[in-house]
Specification:
Layout lengths: L10 E5 L2 H5 L1 H5 L5 E6 L1 H8 L9 H14 L2 E4 L8 H14 L3 E2 L7 H8 L3 H16 L5 E3 L2 E3 L1 H17 L3
Parallel strand pairs: 1-2, 2-3, 3-4
Antiparallel strand pairs: 5-6
Helix pairs in contact: 5-6, 7-8
Length: about 170
């Protein structure tokens, strides 16, 4: 219907049930309108009969990250629900970024600056990525040792993605 009405609507699909988790790969590839998989952790915990804690839901989170990465989509983690626990929210956002999520939902505008700080690369990281990409471009394209570290094509892809995130975040 969206196509029939010539609407360019993009979708963020919530994965919040065990059934959806089992079909996450298929869901992620089901439409070219999908931009992101969003983890519905509270509903998932209820469906799985577990606590809504990081460890209890780590497997579900990992499945969503893998499905999103396979389909080239963003993966957005569940919002942190305790507005008075900034440290807890920062800790969980850092864990989400480490696991491969590209963002975290927010339930209040006051969370947005902290979430952005966890998912948008800082200027030092961006500068380092640019220097590595420039050095790699001048190399033979195989391997590069940069500042004592081995740099291969997967690292180059990560740095290129970092620069894309930085560019989008600073486009306003």
């Amino acid at each position: 219907m969206l196509t029939a009405y010539k609407l360019s609507t993009r979708l963020h699909v919530i994965i919040e049930t065990n059934e959806a988790l089992e079909a996450a790969q298929e869901i992620a590839r089901s439409s070219d309108r999908i931009e992101a998989l969003f983890f519905g952790g509270v509903d998932m915990a209820a469906d799985l009969r577990c606590k809504s804690t990081w460890m209890a839901l780590q497997y579900a989170r990992s499945r969503i990250v893998h499905a999103a990465a396979t389909a080239g989509l963003d993966a957005i983690d569940v919002p942190y629900l305790d507005l008075n626990d900034r440290d807890g929210m920062l800790r969980e956002a850092a864990l989400s970024a480490e696991l491969g999520f590209t963002g975290k939902g927010a339930i209040h505008p006051k969370q947005i600056p902290d979430i952005n700080a966890c998912f948008v690369p800082d200027s030092a990281s961006v500068d380092h990525a640019r220097r590595v990409l420039e050095a790699f471009a001048k190399s033979d394209g195989g391997l590069l040792v940069f500042e004592g570290k081995l740099i291969e094509k997967p690292v180059i892809r990560s740095f290129a993605r970092m620069l894309e995130v930085h560019a989008v975040a600073n486009a306003h």
